[in-house]
Amino acid sequence: MSDHYAEIAWNAAPHAEHPDTFSRDHTVTLENGHILLSSSAPAYFGNAAAANPETLLLASLASCHMLTFLAVAAKRGFTVASYRDRAEGTLGKNADGRVAIVLCELHPIVEFSGEQQPDQEALQKLHDSAHRNCFIANSLSTEVRISH
Questions:
Q1: CB of 80 within 8 A of CB of 111?
Q2: Pairing state between β 143-146 and 99-106
Q3: Residue 124 lies in a domain
Q4: What is the mean pLDDT of residues 6-24?
Q5: What is the DSSP letter of 42?
Q6: How many domains does the chain have?
Q7: Residue 1 falls within a domain, yes or no?
Q8: Apex CA 140: angle with CA 138 and CA 144, to 5°?
C-alpha cells in the first residue's frame, strides 16, 4: 500500500521555567520536510506554543475522517462545499489502568452545494462509512464518537 515516516529530534536542555527538569521541546520533521515545534502538553511541563502528541493525534484522526468523508460523499454524488471540525480528546485511564486518550470526539460541520443534499439519515451514513474506512480510526483502540 504505502509507507510513511516522521523524524523527531531532541537535545538536552534545562526547562526554561523549571531548571530542575529537562525541556520537552523537540522537532518533528514530516516526510515532506515540514518541521513542527513539538513538546509535551502544558500539563506535563510542555511548551504551550508547540504542538503536542495528544493534539497531533486528534488532528490526524479528524483529518483522516474528513478526507475519507470527502471521498465517500463524492462517490455517492454529493458535493461538499465546506467541512470544519473540532476534535476533542479525553485523557484518562484505559481498561488496563494505563493513561491513554480514552475518548475522541469529532464535531464535524459539513455544508453541501448543488442539487443533491443529504438528509440526516444520509449524512449519518456518510459519517459512518467515513469512520469505518478511516485509516487512523482503524489504528486506534480508543472510542471515537462523531457528533454532527
A1: yes
A2: parallel
A3: yes
A4: 93
A5: G
A6: 2
A7: no
A8: 85
Residues 131 and 89 in one domain: yes
pTM: 0.92
Residue 48's alpha-carbon distances to 40, 45, 52, 61, 89, in angstroms, are 8, 9, 8, 21, 17
Look at residue 95 and give its three-state secondary structure: coil
> What is the distance between the alpha carbons of residues 142 and 6, in angstroms, rounded to a whole number?
23
Query: What is the helix (H) or strand (E) element at residue 133, kind and residue range?
Result: helix 120-133
More confident residue, 16 or 23: 23
CATH number at residue 65: 3.30.300.20
| Helix orientation angle between 53-75 and 120-133, rounded to the nearest 10 degrees | 120
- Over 90: is that where the pLDDT of 143 sits? no
Per-residue pLDDT, 37 = 97
